[in-house]
Amino acid sequence: IRHAAGHALRLVEQLRIKRAVFAWPDALGSTAQHSDIVMAVAEGTLLGGYEFDKYVSHTESKFSCQEVALAVRSTTAAAKKALLEAQVISQAVNDARDMQNDNSDDVNPKKIEERAKKIAKDAKIRMTVISGDAAKKAGLNLLQAVGRASPWPPRLIVLEYFGAAKKHAPLAIVGKGITFDTGGVNLKPAHGMLEQMHLDMSGAATVLAVIRLAAQLKLKTNLIAAMPIAENALGGNAYKPGSVYTAQNGTSVEVTNTDAEGRLVLADANAYVAQRYKPTAIIDIATLTGAVLIALGEHHAGLTSNHDDLSNGLFNSSRTTGELIWPLPLTADYRAEVKGKKSDLVNAVLSKSARADAIQAAAFLERFAGEYPFALIDMAGTSMRSYKRGYTPEGGTGFGVRLLLDYIKQNPHGPKAKGWGSRGLGRYGR
Ligand code: BES
Ligand code: ZN
Ligand code: ZN
Q1: Could you read off the pLDDT of 187-196 as tens digits, one per residue?
Q2: Which residue lies with its CA nearest to atom 16 of ligand 1?
């Protein structure tokens, strides 16, 4: 229904229709609640109408429909609430898409901090930023290493929303915020999707939108959103392959590839939130690996977790929201592969071939999530699209916002404590 509504809106705009009415047969209601259908039509319309045309000057291609009315059989309170909620959610998703799509020089680490500050102020969310000497003191050495060749220093932005009683530990969502990924000294090849790499901060855009929505919708949940922000730039000061750095939790990491920078910045952020907040679980969301794009294309994100209840909850939310994810295994064989020779861990297993790299990245990141259930959503394929389809635009899609929001609504206090995975086969087990 979402896809149909998004497609319909595009047709309406192609026909240059300013005001339209969308109606649908009652039969649609046979398998879903009336309010769910209203929500899906509204979301599909509002998300499908998105276009990033900030830099387009030929006005003949610019047209936006001004008003869509939904013809419903009954305007129940639930349907009205669904419509309002669809508007709030779609606005946040479209804002995330804007942040993804704009130039990396404009959406640089400093500008992301400014945007986050404004959103936090409007939604009354507490925000802290750790950078410079404070980052050094906090031991965020991996984040520092990745971001040090950029004119805009790296930083860890942490947002806190407490909408439930303090006795409930918060859930932590952590989004990769690389404002541009050159690959560093292991420079990306010309065909390495370089012109897409301003989208490498998509995870940060997603978690920022999610916490904003949790506050706007006054969800009775406790939530931490952490955004490690850095530009993986080139320069005389850039971090180098073969160097060993010590992460926030004391784990030493040999940088075997400077292009595997996402897991480095996420590692420090995970370790920081694990130590500071003792969360119910840590969910990383990131444009992390080319490998997941090869495995699943642009239609499913990869889900790797060591905890079945967390993993199943995310999977169910993916089915509800249409932001699809698919599970990958996480077992001792992969965990063994990320161990180092001159360090505890290596950030990339093979310099040329990226075999099971999406899983190896999760095996690496898990080591920084302390004793807490951990999941990685690798959305390298789904957060940036090469063509429009249904309600998803070309370019930044805002993937994960509705998925994580639904997970939080269904599991306001995180996953069940018991549930260490049979799929993941335990935390460090086989
Ligand atoms: N940002 C990239 C992953 C990516 C690739 C996102 C294509 C979207 C589209 C990430 O930082 C990266 O470069 N990963 C490397 C890891 C490898 C060196 C182990 C990759 O996937 O090649
Ligand atoms: Zn990279
Ligand atoms: Zn990257």
Answers
A1: 999 999 999 9
A2: 260
Place of tokens 């950029």: 150
Q: What is the pLDDT of residues 197-216, one digit of tens each?
A: 999 999 999 999 999 999 99
For the segment 163-189, the average pLDDT, to the nearest whole number, is 98
* Contact yes or no for 163/218 (Cβ under 8 A): yes
Q: Kindly give the distance from the C-alpha atom of residue 178 to the centroid of ligand 2, in angstroms, as a whole number.
A: 9
On whether the CB atoms of residues 355 and 349 are closer than 8 A, the answer is yes
Tokens of 157: 């932005």
Beta strand ranges found along 201-280 (DSSP E): 222-232, 244-246, 252-254
Among all chains, which residue has been given the structure tokens 């999406």? 358
> Would you say 111 and 143 are in contact if contact means Cβ atoms under 8 Å apart?
no
Any atom of ligand 1 within 6 Å of the Cβ of 8: no
Q: What is the distance of C-alpha 243 from the center of its chain? A: 28
Question: Rounded to an integer, what distance in angstroms lies between the CA atom of residue 415 and that of residue 370?
Answer: 16
How far is residue 191's CA from residue 196's CA, in Å, rounded to a whole number?
11
Tokens representing 374 are 């951990």
Q: Are 249 and 274 in contact (CB under 8 A)?
A: yes
Specify the ligand 1 atom closest to the Cα of 290: 21
Cα 103 to Cα 51, 52, 118, 131, 230, distances in angstroms: 15, 12, 19, 23, 15
| Distance set, CA 6 to CA 40, 48, 147, 242, 395 (Å) | 10, 4, 38, 48, 16
Asked whether the predicted pLDDT for residue 59 surpasses 80, the reply is no
Q: How far apart are CA 52 and CA 41, in angstroms?
A: 21
Q: Which atom of ligand 1 is closest in space to residue 192's alpha carbon?
A: 7
Between CA 360 and CA 242 the distance in angstroms is 19
Q: Which residues, 6 or more positions from 99, have their beta carbon under 8 angstroms from its beta carbon?
A: 107, 112, 115, 201, 205, 208, 396
Q: How far is CA 75 from CA 1, 38, 392, in A?
A: 19, 10, 28
DSSP H or E segment with residue 402: helix 401-410
Are the beta carbons of 237 and 149 closer than 8 angstroms?
A: yes
At CA 357, angle to CA 356 and CA 359, rounded to 5? 70
Amino acid found at 129: V
